Every structure is written in structure tokens, then in C-alpha cells.
Fold:
Amino acid sequence: MPQTALVIGGTGPTGPCVIEGPRQRGYRVSILHRGVHEVELPAEVEHIHADPHFTANLTEALAGRTFDLTVSMYGRLRHTAQVMRGRTERFIGVGGVAVYLGWVDLSHHPGDALPLPIPEDALLVTDPTQHKFAYLMVKSEEEVMEGHRQGAYNGTVLRYPIIYGPRQLVPREWSIIRRVLDGRKHFILPEGGLYLETRGYADNMAHALLLCVDQPDRAGGQIYNVGDDRMCSLREWVEMVCAILGHRFEMVTIPLEAAFPARVYTAVLWEGQPYHRVMDISKIKRELGYRDPVPV
Structure:
């Protein structure tokens, strides 16, 4: 009998690549998602339609089912980690970078300064009044790690950055492309466009996850930052898009406070605070051998 894999989510930016990975490794793959956003997948991939945000829905949809591998990329991770106890040998949960104290609001971090780059053992959000969603993300990671410690499964957590590529949720490049299509001559860059933020190409992030699938003994019990190995500034992103489209802007540098029109293509205005958000990915490079398979 072939091994079985369950992908919770699977229709977002990295989903199809993650699904294809276990298939190429001989797994029989099922995906559990709401059925709202369908993507083209091989006919042999089973679709289980349920809302993964609720424990009761997951329990009902997976009644009597067990899997060798579970990848949880959508829904409430803390719920999927609970429901999959006793149902899977291997559990890989995908979270995000908002868990870091100060990532969303720098004023929450002691000294109003983030360590750069930010390692996995940096301070996390532990107070729900600071940022409730980030706090719940931290609790979700803890649930996965507790399941691993108790022997319920071999567990790993990946902290995804902003994802770019097909099916991305926040297509910032479109706002640059639209300005090109409109024939605009000038482009506003807050603070010279020197802002740095970790991003990850969809295929690259799927590759990072599959490294965990292939190396369970090393990845088990670990939390990894993931992102592209190459770091680009906001100005570099704009210049790369323009080069592809054969367009040239006159770059206009203005202070952040006056750069409100730039909000659509930079996260620097999340809380009106200009600071870099850079993750340290040296751990996954050192332990699992991560390198970008697709260059920026």
C-alpha cells in the first residue's frame, strides 16, 4: 500500500507545488479545503471539502481516516494540530512571521528595535492585547510542538514570509505594473526605497517544506524561518519589474510621512513605521541544506 498524505489547504500560492512533492515521492495525496478556490490538480488527488477553521468540521470530515504525512497550510493550525493527534505519523504546520514581537508594531519590542536578521529564538508575541492574531499564531506553534513532545506525531513548524508568485494573496507587483500600464512617468519611493523585507517565491517555499518531508529525523521538533536566500530592497523590486516590462520611471524619493500613495506596494506602512523586516534563514540552510531552487 502506498503511503498517504493529507494537505490541509493546498489551493494557495505554494499548494500545488507542495501537493506535487509527495506525489513524486509515491504518496497517495488528499487535500482538505473549503472548495471555494479550486485549482487544477491531477485527477488522482482526492478533494475533501470542509472548513478547517473549526475542530468539529475537521473531526467529521476525517472520521476513521489516518495519514502518514499531514501538511497544514490553512485554517487554524492549533485546531488541525489537535485533530491530527493519533491520525498522522508526521505533521508539518505552516505559520508566519507575525509571531515575532515587534514585527507588526515595533513599539512592542524592548528598545523599539528588532534584531536583524530575526532568528527563530527571538522574542514572540505572548500578550493578546499587543496583537491578538499574532498571539494565536504563537499558541498554534506551541500546540504543534506539544504534540511532538508528547509523541503524538513527528512535528515541524515553518514560518512563511510574504509569498510572491502565482496565486499570491497580496499581489503587490500589480500596483507597480498598473502604474506602468497607465504610462506614469514618476514612481514614489518612501525613504529611497531602501526598505528590506523577507519574501519567498512560491516554488522556493514549497521546496523548503519538502526538505522537511525528506528529513524527518533532522526537522522533527524544529521551527524554521523560511524565505528567499537573496534579499532585495523595495527599489530593487520596482526596478526588476520595470526591466521585465521595458519601462523606465523617474524615481521620486520622499519622506515616509508623505508617501501615502506608496502604501499599496510596500508593507512599510502597516503601522506607519519605517523599519526592516528581515528573517534569519541560516538554520534551515545549515540543518536541511536549503538554497533557492528558483532565483529571484
Observations:
- The two ends are 40 Å apart (CA to CA).
